[in-house]
Amino acid sequence: MITKFRVNNFKSLLNAEFRPVGLNLIIGPNNAGKTNLCSALRFLALTSEHSLDAAALMSTGERWNLTNVYVSAPSVIEMEIECSLRHENEDLHFNYSLSLDIKKTDIVGADTLSVKEERLAATGGRFNQTPLVKNTAGQTSMLHEEGFVQQRLNTPYHAQAKVAANATMLSQLFELENNPRAILFRNYLRSWAYYNLSPDALRLPDVAKDDGTLLHNGANLSRALYALHNEKPRLERKLIDFIKQVEPKLDLFSFLSPDPEHVHLFFEDDKEHRFSTKSISDGTLRFLAIAYVVLMSEQIATLTGFPPLTLIEEPENGLYIGQLKPLIQHIDPSGSSGQFIFTSHSPYFIDLFDNNLAGVHLVKRGSPSSILTQPNQDKISRLLGDMSLGELHFRELLA
């Protein structure tokens, strides 16, 4: 589970430090930097699988204008995370840092990114801030982990290689048995997911060319549920039981796949009446997608042994907040079944965190940088007797 994220010179964020717990809520006014923080986390995760340019496009929609435009700092982006993961019977603490050079051009959208420095270190067992991966502008070294652990090598052996500088070393790792901890960390980053769900996208029957996981806007929901229907019917039944809180008449999902490129989703009641996604409200579809994400997070944690990180923007849109309450209460706040980060403007959704103040984070506008803070828990606990958490935020009393 990630315990610390530091980001410097990314969008509105300058040397910002974020310390999430198992269940988190990011609040603040519009254009304060909430989405920038989510984009930074998403960008870092994507660099473990894609080129830097592709990660920038996928996380922000552009590969230029990534740095804070209000400071004359060098064109360097810095990111660092700390997290704890378990490898077999070994508890490990990882520290990963990534520094990127940005080459500016006069052509809009033509900026290029390259790795300046990259370092992954582990602590636990024989490891004590031991570097597993080091990368300086494409010149890399990798520790022979198993030889180091088993003391088969007189001195720690580091394999040397030259790799492309427009991608991280993590994204170019091979699945080698000599480096299971570096691979574990890389796979953990790849398990991170970001969602900003669009009802129009959720209704699409198009089969996306992807790995089957739900896309960030929900565009392949029909395909994802079709896979669940065929491969995990018990989990599908659990999902349907969740959806009954919003749509009590739902009895089962049915599907029509007229060709390999399309899967049409239908809701059916116990009288075999069929309803297409065109007949289902925006809120119900968003609830369905969020419930799917929560349940799949638990599945991933069970299968991989580590809790994935999931970011969901403004889950309350189009939903009666009372229907989200049992879903949020279903999430284990310890993060053992998945670590969650939500953003919200709704005072009623914010109220759901009055017993989880450690997970509340406030982003405020600042000059030249967004300001990320955590409310004083003792102060807020005293005020909660008179006002709800959402009301305290509305009255700007959380700062």
Give a description of the structure:
A hairpin with a 2-residue loop joins strand 11 and strand 12. The mean pLDDT is 91. It is globular, with a radius of gyration of 22 Å. Helix 7 runs antiparallel to helix 8. With 399 residues, it is of the alpha+beta class. The strands form three sheets. An eight-stranded antiparallel β-sheet has the order 2-1-4-5-6-7-8-9. Among the domains are: 180 residues, no CATH class; 84 residues, no CATH class. It is built from twelve helices and 17 strands.
Feature tags:
single chain, 399 residues, alpha+beta, 8-stranded antiparallel sheet, 6-stranded mixed sheet, 12 helices, 29% helix, globular
